[in-house]
Each structure stands twice: as C-alpha cells, then as structure tokens.
Amino acid sequence: MCTVPFFYHSSNFMEEKLFFGGVKGGKTTKIITLNGKKMRKIPSTIGNLTGLKVLNLQNNLIPSVCSELSTLTQLTVLNMGNNLLEEVPEEVKYLTSLTKLHLFGNRISRFASEICDGLKNLTLLNLNNNQLTYIPKEVSRLENLIYLSVNHNQLTSIPRELCFLKNLCELQLNYNQISCIPEDIWFLKSLQKLFLARNNIEVLPELLCHLINLKSLDIAGNLIQIFPSGFQYMKLKEFYCEGNPLYLKHPVGAIKKLDVLSLQEITSRFIMNQLIEMNPFLMEAMAWYPQIWQTISKGKLCAICGKSFLAMWIECVEFVPPSKNWRTSRNLKLVPLRTLICSFACFNQRGPNQFGIAHVQNQ
Fold it and tell me: Residues 139, 141, 145, CA angle at the centre, nearest 5°?
C-alpha cells in the first residue's frame, strides 16, 4: 500500500508531475491524500491508478472532476469536502465500489437522479453546507445507505422515496426550509437518529411514533405546537424541542354544547364500531361497497371511550411529563400530546390534564 502526503505546487505542470510522479506504487497504490494543497484540478493521470481505494482531496479549489475519475471502479472512499463543486459529479455513478462519499462544503445545487443508479454499495453520503433545494426521489436506489447528512442546505421537502431506505440508521436535515415530514417516515424501521432542527415543520406525523428503533430526535427551532398521541411511549434516549411554540397549560372556560351528529356520521360510527366487533353480516356486505371502505378508513378512535368516529369532533391537548429515560431540553417540563374526542359527552369525562383546543366543526 502506498499513501502519498507530499508538497504541492500550483502550476498545472507541477500538478500533473507531482500527482503521478509522487505515486511510487503505480497501479498498486491504494490511498492518495492531498488535502489542503490548493489544487485546482484533478490530473487525468489519476486514471492510471486503477487499484486506488481511498482518494482524499479535501480543502482544495477544485470546481469539477476529470472524466478519468470514472475508471476508479475499486474506489471505496472519495472525500472532496470543501472544494468548489457546483453539482454532484456525474462521474461518481461509475464508482460502483464506493461506500463513502463526502461532498460537504461545496456549492452544489444540482443532484442528477441518474447518479444514484451506480452507487448500490454506498453507506455514507455527506452533502452538508451546500445549496441543494431538493433530493432526487431516486435516492431510494441507494439501498445500502446507512448515514445521510444534508445539513445547512435549502431543502423545502423530504421525498417520500427516501423513507424506503430500509438500512438507514441516521438522517440529518438540520438548517433547511423543510415544512413537513412524509407520513411514510415510519417505514424507516432501522432509523436510530433523526435530526430536523431549525426548519419550518408545523406537524409531526402520527406514524412517527412507529419508529421503534429511534433513539435520538432533534426538532428544535421549528413551528411545532403539539405532538402526536402515543409520542410519550417512544423509546428515545435524547429528545430536543426547544424553540418551538408548544402549547402551554393555561386553562380557560368554555361553553358546553349538545352533540348534534349528521346522518353520515351516525351511520359511519355504527358501521365502524360493528366492524370492530366482527359483525359477520356487515363484514360480508362491505365487500360490495368499496366506496364505504374508503370513507371509514379515515376513521379515528376517541381517546376517552375508545370507539370509532369519522369527523373530528373535538381536538384536545393532554399534558404529560417527558419520560425519565429521555435526555431533554432543560426547560421541558410537560409534553403536549394531541388527542381526539368524539363528543361533548366524552369531553366532560376527560382527565384533569386534558384541555380542548378547537371549536366544534360544522357537520
């Protein structure tokens, strides 16, 4: 194995000469490290190093890569952090052995979808501190990806296809402009760390609570007021939510009203609750009415009586202390949880820490 840490001169001639001439191992060279050498290009002679495994070119002035880079099919690590790249180089799609790709601290605003096709073995992708406004939906083809970090970019959304990366353990999307999280987030069964600090997120999806392996969650500095029901049972070790406009426990009086249900709501509630009890007549009849299935699939469960209902009657907030197993923000005393109640009758039976936060909806 030959590692090359040598001094570098700025002229193109010396660049070419030193790059290849300094590599004594020729085709047997495994590692090249040329960090901080003020390089402005990758010499074409790199194509002769077909056995290269690791290429470190961090902290240089490289605006693009040479086409010969695509011949390095045994390369496993490419580090081009802190250069002048404006796009994810198309040449990397030919680096089929690549496991780690560092492109942080560039000027990258373009990420062509076809690049994902050749990176089947990639486990780490670092795109921090760039200018990306999107992640291509083809990211789902990076089937072995374990670590993805796109902090300090300009992302406005998370593609739902990203949620199908079954091996992903850590996802970092801090300091972007993301406004919502896909409902499909719960498919990330291997996810252990999720960082979404300093975005524009207003709502956490209900199915977030199904991330059974999630240990660290950072949603600090968003626009979140309330957490989904069941959030308090997540097996987190770290949870940070400072800088969100969380609901506070300030009870006020309210006028009690009678329950007036529409005919559709009465019928839907009856059907949904009969199906829960496995009513054989209704179960057989439902096979002939798919449109009814589509309607009642939107049903919810009352937090008080446990029965199903269709239209949200009263949205409530329940204040519970965070789990003693969580490491949290210092000032977090109570976690506001979203609960739904089917009627004023049930609302009147609520616990002392449940409060209504919405008016009755018109039927």
Answer: 75
First and final C-alpha spacing in the chain: 75
pTM equals 0.81
- Among residues 107, 106, 125, 105, the alpha carbon closest in space to that of 115 is found at 125
DSSP helix/strand/coil, 350:
coil
pLDDT tens-digit series, residues 195-248: 999 999 999 998 999 999 999 999 999 999 999 988 999 999 999 999 999 887
CA-to-CA distance for 100 and 118, rounded, in angstroms?
13
Give the tens place of pLDDT for each residue, 83-94. Answer: 999 999 999 999
What is the distance, to the nearest Å, from the Cα of residue 100 to the centroid of all Cα atoms in its chain?
A: 19
Q: Which residues contact 248 (CB under 8 A, 6 or more apart)?
A: none
For 35, the 3-state DSSP assignment is coil
Cα 264 to chain centroid, rounded: 38
Mean per-residue pLDDT, 266-285: 60
Tell me the C-alpha distance between 96 and 118, whole Å: 5
Residues 292, 289: Cα–Cα separation, whole Å: 6
